[in-house]
Amino acid sequence: MNAIRPHAEEQYAGELKALAAADTRPRPPNWRLSPWAVATYLMGGTLEDGTVIIPKYVGNQRLMEIAIATLATDRGLLLLGVPGTAKTWVSEHLAAAVSGDSTLLIQGTAGTSEESMRYGWNYAELLAKGPSSKALVPSPIMRAMQEGKVARVEELTRIPADMQDTLITILSEKTLPIPELGEEVQAAKGFNIIATANNRDRGVNELSSALRRRFNTVVLPVPAEFDEEVQIVQQRVAQMGRALELPAEPPALEEIRRVVTIFRELRNGVTTDGKTKLKSPSATLSTAEAIGVINQGLSLAAHFGDGTLRAADAASGLLGAVVKDPVQDRVVWQEYLETVVKEREGWKDLYRACKKAE
User: Fold this and answer.
1) How much of the chain exceeds pLDDT 90, in percent?
2) CA torsion through residues 53, 36, 175, 169, sign
3) Domain final residue, candidates 204, 219, 234
4) Do residues 266 and 306 share a domain?
5) Model confidence over 247-280: pLDDT tens digits?
C-alpha cells in the first residue's frame, strides 16, 4: 500500500538500519538502538560509513537527551508545550528509534474509555465461553507491556481524569491487573510510556499530582531563532510535498521566510526590528500552522497555478491561520496588514494578495 504518511520506522527504515549497524554503545534492555544512536537519529549527523541522518527535531539537543534518558528509567516521559511544538512528531520518532514500533498509540479525547487504556473484550467470545485470555482484547499499553516497547498517549489532558489515573498503577507498579481472570500483566523490560499534552489545555482535565509525579516532564519550546523556525518549515514542507506527490516546485525560501516572519511578529506582539508593537490574535500561530499555510499554498500553486508558490497562493492560508475569531482577530489582521505588510519593502504583492483574499 502506498500510504500518504508512512510510520516513522517505515519512512526512515534505512537510517535506523544504518544506525543499528554502526551502534556499538550499550543498549538498555529491548532497545533497538543505544541512547546515543537514538539522539543521533533525532538530531541528525553523518555516520562513519557516510550515511547521512536527517534531523527529525531542530532545536535544543539537551532536551532530547533528557527525554531519551528518561525512557531508560522507570519513569514515564511527558512532552509538554503549546500546540505545534512537535510533541507528537518527537514522540513518534522516539518510539520508532527505541522500539522499532510507533503504532502503539492512544489518541486522547473526551471519550477515551477504560478499554482504550487497559483492555477490552471480544463480546462474542465472552458471551459464548465467559472471561478468558482468548476473549481479552489488549490495549496498545497492554501490548507495549507484554512486548517491552514504548506506548504513546497523545493529548493526555484531553482524557477524563478517572481514565488518566488508570496509568498510575501501570507507571508505578509496572503491572496491569486483570481482575476478571485473577491475573495480571507484568511489564517486560523496555516498556515505557510517552505522553503529550499542550499548555493551552491546562484546566481541561488537569493531571493529578499522583500521576504527574510518575512522569518526567520535558517542555518543548517554540523555536527561539528565526532561522531555526525557517529550517523546520522548509524541511517538513519538503517531506510532506514528496509524500503527497504535489506537482509543484519546492517553495522559494523567501516565501517561507515571509510566512514565518508574520507568524513570529504576531505571536510575539512586536515587529522583528522591535520598533512597532502589535496586537496578537487568539490563534496559536505555531510552526505547525506555518507548515500548513505553505503546504496549502503549494497545493493551490500546483493545481490552480503554474506550480510556483506565489503571494496569492499563501494569502488565503494566512487569513485562515490568523483569523480564528471573525471579529477580534480580523481587526488584528487588518491593522497588521496596514501598518506592517503594506509598508515593508518588497511585500507589496503579499499585501495586495491578502487584501484580495479578505
Assistant:
1) 68
2) negative
3) 219
4) yes
5) 666 777 888 999 999 999 999 999 998 888 999 9
Q: How many domains does the chain have?
A: 2
Q: Is 15 within the bounds of a domain?
A: no
Do residue 241 and residue 330 come from a single domain? yes
- Choice between 241 and 329, residue whose per-residue pLDDT is larger: 329
| Residue 32 resides in a domain | no
232, 247 contact by CB (below 8 A): no
| pLDDT tens digit sequence for 192-202 | 999 999 876 55
In angstroms, the CA 37 to CA 42 distance is 9
Q: At what angle do helices 87-99 and 13-22 cross, to 10 degrees?
A: 50
| Sign of the CA dihedral running 60, 96, 41, 256 | negative
Q: Which domain holds residue 250?
A: 226-357
Render pLDDT for 343-355 as a digit per residue (tens, 0 to 9). Answer: 999 999 999 999 9
Cell of 237: 514542507
**Same domain assignment for residues 245 and 137:** no
- Claim to verify: residue 149 and residue 76 sit in the same structural domain: yes
**Per-residue pLDDT at 206:** 85
Same domain, 204 and 338: no
Q: How many Å separate Cα 226 from the centre of its chain?
A: 20
Domain end marker among 196, 219, 242: 219
First to last CA, the chain: 41
Same domain for 246 and 197: no
Please tell me the pTM assigned to this model. 0.88
Residues 272 and 331 reside in one and the same domain: yes
Give residues with Cβ within 8 angstroms of 169, minimum separation 6. Answer: 175, 176, 177
Share of residues in the chain with pLDDT > 70 (%): 96
CA gyration radius for the chain?
23
Q: What is the largest CA-CA distance in the chain?
A: 76
pLDDT over threshold 60, residue 203: no
**Long-range contacts (CB closer than 8 Å, 24 or more residues apart) made by 108-112:** 108/153, 108/154, 108/155, 108/156, 108/157, 108/158, 108/159, 109/155, 109/158, 109/159, 110/158, 110/159, 110/160, 112/158, 112/159, 112/160, 112/163
**What average pLDDT is seen over the chain?**
91
pLDDT, position 244 = 66
